[in-house]
Amino acid sequence: MSDSGAGPETPPGIDDLLCFAVYSTGHAFNRVYKPLLDPLGLTYPQYLVMVSLWAKDGQRVGELGEALFLESSTLTPLLKRLEAAGYLTRSRDPSDERQVRVRLTAAGTALSDKARHVPRCILEATGLSVQSLIRLQGEIASMRDNLLKAAG
Amino acid sequence: MSDSGAGPETPPGIDDLLCFAVYSTGHAFNRVYKPLLDPLGLTYPQYLVMVSLWAKDGQRVGELGEALFLESSTLTPLLKRLEAAGYLTRSRDPSDERQVRVRLTAAGTALSDKARHVPRCILEATGLSVQSLIRLQGEIASMRDNLLKAAG
DNA sequence: CACGATTAAATCGTACACGATCATTTAGGG
DNA sequence: CCCTAAATGATCGTGTACGATTTAATCGTG
Q1: A89-94, long-range: CB < 8 A, 24+ apart
Q2: Residue of A9, A70, B60, B141 with fewest CB within 10 Å of its CB?
Q3: Residue A129, phi then psi, degrees to nearest 5
Q4: Contact residues on chain A for B48, CB-CB shorter than 8 A
C-alpha cells in the first residue's frame, strides 16, 4: 500500500503522481491510435494537425502551434512530412512573406472521410460514457490551463 | 462554438478530443517541472525513474519498464545518462547475466532530499485540492488501464 | 527613407519514445 | 550433453518535442 495518508513531505510513489497518470495515459492513447492511424499514413501528432486543418484550412504555422501548444521547431519538420505525403502544401503568404500558410490538398481533405470512424473507436477504448468523457475532458483541460498559467 | 451536440459522426474539433486534453496536459506538466528539475540535473522521465528507484532500489531494467510503461529502447539510453550523471549504476546480475540491476549511488539517494519540495510545487500549480487530485488521478489511471486493455 | 526593434519560421543540438531486430544468456527436452 | 526456444537488454531507424539561435521580412520611429 502507498503512503497517501502520510506526512505532507513523504515522497509519493509513482502511482500516486497525477502527472504520471497523465503521462502514461498519453502513451496508452498512442497505442490505441497507432493501428487506427497507420492505414492512413499518419502519426498521432500528424493526426492532430489534420484534425485542426479539417476544422480550419489555411492556418499559419504559428496558428497551428497555438492550437496544439507546439513550437515551430516541432511543427516545421512534421508539416514537411505531411507535405511529402501529399496531404498539404506550405507556402509563404504573399502579403507577408514571414508567414507560411498550410493548406490541405485534395488528398488531405479526402482523408477526413477515411478517418471518420476513429473517434468512435477511441471512445469505446476509453470505456467511458459520452457524459463521463466530456466531464473528464473538461477537468483535464482546466487543469492544463492552470498549469500553463503557473508556468508563466 | 463546437459541434458537441451534433451527429455521432461529425468530426470533432481539437478541443473536444479527450486524448488532446491528455496530450497537451502532459506538455503543460513538463513545462512546470522543468524549472524544478533543471537544478537537479534531471529531465522529467529521468525524474520518474528516480522516484521509482527511491521507492525500490535495485530494480531490473524490465521491472522499471513495467512500472513506467516504457521499453528498453527508451530506458537504456536514459539510464546511461543517469549513470553518466553519477546518480546510479548499471550492472549485470551475476546469478543471471541477462538481467541488468539498476542501483542508486550515494548521490542518487541524496537527490531525494533535494527533490522533497517538488510534489508540493506541482500540486499548487494544478490548482486542485488534494481530494480532487486523488480522484482525478484515479479516474485517469483507470481510463489508461482500459486503453491498454483495448490495445491488447 | 533609414535603421533598430519586432515578428515568423527554420535550424541545430539534446532527449525521449517506439517497433523491429540483434546478441547473449538461460532453461528444457531428447 | 547438445540444441533449440525463450528471456532480457541493447541497438538502429524514424518521428516527435523543446530551448536557443539564426535568418528573413516587416514595422515604428525619427
Answers
A1: A90/A61, A93/A60
A2: A9
A3: -75, 160
A4: 14, 17, 20, 23
C-alpha grid cell, residue A88 = 498539404
pLDDT tops 80 at residue B11: no
Show the cell assigned to B116. Answer: 522533497
Q: What is the DSSP letter of B57?
A: S
User: What's the pTM value of the predicted model, to 2 decimals?
Assistant: 0.93
> Chain B interface, mutation test: which of A1, A16, A24, A142, most B Cβ atoms within 10 Å?
A24
For A71-133, give the DSSP string: -HHHHHHHHHHHHHTTSEEEEEETTEEEEEEEEE-HHHHHHHHHTTTHHHHHHHHHT--HHHH
**Fold of domain B15-115:** Arc Repressor Mutant, subunit A (1.10.10)
**Extents of the domains making up chain A:** 15-115, 116-152
- Residues of A (61-100) placing their beta carbon closer than 7 angstroms to any atom of strand C are 61-63, 65, 71-73, 75-77, 79, 90, 98-100
Angle A118-A121-A127 (CA atoms, 0-180°, nearest 5)? 145
The alpha carbon of residue A18 is apart from the nearest alpha carbon of chain B, in Å, by 5
Cα distances from A103 to residues A66, A96, B27, in angstroms, run 17, 16, 26
pLDDT digits (tens, 9 = 90+) for A4-57: 444 446 677 999 999 999 999 999 999 999 999 999 999 999 999 999 999 999
CB contact under 8 A, B137 and A17: yes
- Supply the pLDDT for residue B9: 59
Q: Which residue out of A44, A134, A147 would a mutagenesis test of the B interface target, given it has the greatest number of B Cβ atoms within 10 Å? A: A147
- Give which of A148, A30, A63, A104 is closest to B20, Cα–Cα: A30
